[in-house]
Amino acid sequence: MEPVSGPKAAADKVRFIPLSYNQAESRTSALRLVYTIRPEWEHTDGQIELVRFTDGITNTLLKVVNKRPGLSSEEMDRESFLLRAFGEGTSLIIDRERESQNHELLMKHNLAPQLLARFHNGMLYRFIRGAVTSPADLRREEIWRAVARRLAEWHAVVPCLPSSREPLATEITGSEEFGIPAPTPSRMDPAVQQAIDNVAPGKPAPNVWTVMQKWIYALPVTSDAEKSRQASLQKELTRLVPEFSNRPGLGKDSLVFAHCDLLSGNVIVEPRPVGVTKSSAPETVNFIDYEYATPSPAAFDISNHFAEWGGFDCEHGLLPTRSQRRDFIREYIRSYFAHLNQDEPVNEEAEASRLFEEVDTFRGIPGFYWGIWALIQATISQIDFDYASYAEIRLGEYWAWRAEMDGSRASAGKEVTLRERRWAQEA
């Protein structure tokens, strides 16, 4: 892969195009955007090809290729870029301004492709050559070791920056979209944003806890059952934050810049240079799609990735065993401290043991996180995916973990769930 960006590219202000992508007029609206940043392509002797990717379940992703005669596929890929249009209604749960800031921040550290332009409901960025992984690929040792190394680099070198907020009176207008009354009688009251930002006292906002609080506020409440579920989830978040937000961990304030959505579709395996064989160099991967990236405990990001070994079907029997998790974390720790360039010697085995225990402790939290998310998606998404069932599976992971931790499963004489059994399996 070519370097994904340079210092100048990262420093330049990203262009905004006052146009939108329209799913109903996909090619026409896409080409309007393409010709805005590549006007010479409108009169090229090549053919503009739009290749649709379907690895995600919230956005539309198109690869834009100018198939000019005489160019190799590699040469065409160098000129290609991606058009990503945001899913309908997703601005309710994703801070799109923050996503753009994340992308630019990662560009500065050569960890993201160059962001070419933004438009009303999406962005255009350079194409990264490589192969998108599948859940089965994530379980291959050469891939998970590469993921561990790259994730450690993210966590070690990218700073956690607080959001630059507009004055709260202006910022809070977005809360009109929340599905419940604000913590005060008026949903326009700045107390809503304050309640979100302060859900984990002492932690800079945004962070993984503020994200979950925002999502709970955005849950649908059109029935008594939905109101009851929202109240239950709010109670659980109120319980989780003091339990988990102040645990010791890697990074400043025990937070690292986390991807938070490291599923297989967001892991790209770099092509090997000519003459380089598998035996002569390890695999290298890159991560794409930064819409959920936010400061988070490293243990959350890692345990969230481990859950993705089972894919969207949540095949719990395929999650990493204790020995696999231990080896992944050892690889991660070696990379993490290598990127920190510390002068003092580090006991890597002790650090790996601590992180292993933290990841084990955090194993239920991703189910809570994505369960809330899926409940919202079930009401706003136009994509053909059974979000409601997915929500029940993911929240079920959380409740099974909680029942294991507090002993209620054992005292009730219930069987251990498959996920919990797999998590406890040594090899």
TrEMBL record:
The keyword Repeat does not apply. It is an enzyme of class 2 (transferase). CDD domains: ETNK_euk. Pfam families: Choline_kinase. This is ethanolamine kinase. Keywords: Kinase, Transferase. It comes from Lachnellula suecica. Coiled coil: none annotated. Pathway: Phospholipid metabolism; phosphatidylethanolamine biosynthesis; phosphatidylethanolamine from ethanolamine: step 1/3. It comes from the Eukaryota. The lineage of its organism: Eukaryota, Fungi, Dikarya, Ascomycota, Pezizomycotina. GO terms for cellular component: cytoplasm. GO terms for biological process: phosphatidylethanolamine biosynthetic process. Belongs to the choline/ethanolamine kinase family. Its EC number is 2.7.1.82. InterPro entries: Kinase-like_dom_sf. GO terms for molecular function: ethanolamine kinase activity.
